[in-house]
Amino acid sequence: MERRIKVASYNIHKGLSPLNRRLVVHDVRHALHNLAPDVVFLQEVQGEHSSRARQFNYWPTTPQHEYLAGNDLSFAYGRNAIHRLGHHGNAVLSRFPITRWGNHDITLNRFEKRGLLHCVLEIPSWNVPLHAFCVHLNLLARDRRKQLAAMVEQIQNEVPKNAPLVIAGDFNDWRREATHILGSELHVIEAFETMHGSPARSFPVRMPVLSLDRIYVRGFGIEVADVLGGQPWSHLSDHAPLYTVLRRG
């Protein structure tokens, strides 16, 4: 039985460097390939942008989630923000088959288009599937509370109580409210907080002071929980990725 899975969560800043000066999606692909996670939760994924495709040489000919998945990973993409030049949203990449997925709108205002991407993963020798949720929440605390409540309701309606569960993404939760809400309602634990006593500082990437990104799990033990700083990550996005190794059973 496959006991361990490697999980990463990463806000890729639409495949651009922290100040939007360089196209770095090719470097992101190389870095993720070297990290070799089994499941990747991505935020700010550029599905299409006609202006940037003209601006930058070597802009991928496929959407970023497809390009990052390559030939080895399955993928699902939740299109959240749609504008005249294209669209962006969240994505899940997986070494395991994605047997079902859906994107739930949790938008509260026209300036922050948000979605909750739900993927069901079939993992060999597991008697139940893994439910994976990728999310990017609003900047205002009162909005995040409403979105967390909507997330809890969605998960309670769609996920059996005994099913393994991972919720990951950019929570914008510098007030550290999400852990109490999700822990009490969904009985999840946060990977980095469980291992190290507090959530990971992941923003801004070169001198992280804010705990914005999280990986919440249910039905797993935590073996490793890291925030990935330094090279190459410090030049690829304004967020540092989170990485954890989960043990099942």
From TrEMBL:
Q: Which UniProt keywords apply?
A: Endonuclease, Exonuclease, Hydrolase, Nuclease
Q: Name one GO molecular function term.
A: endonuclease activity
Q: Write out the GO cellular component annotations.
A: membrane
Protein name (Swiss-Prot/TrEMBL)? Endonuclease/exonuclease/phosphatase family metal-dependent hydrolase
Query: Which top-rank group of organisms is this from?
Result: Bacteria
Query: Which InterPro entries is this protein grouped with?
Result: Endo/exonu/phosph_ase_sf, Endo/exonuclease/phosphatase, GPI-anchor_lipid_remodeler
List the SUPFAM superfamilies hit by this protein, alphabetically: DNase I-like
One GO term of the biological process aspect: GPI anchor biosynthetic process
- Keyword check for Hydrolase, yes or no: yes
One Pfam family assigned to this protein is: Exo_endo_phos
- Residue intervals of the Endonuclease/exonuclease/phosphatase domain: 8-239
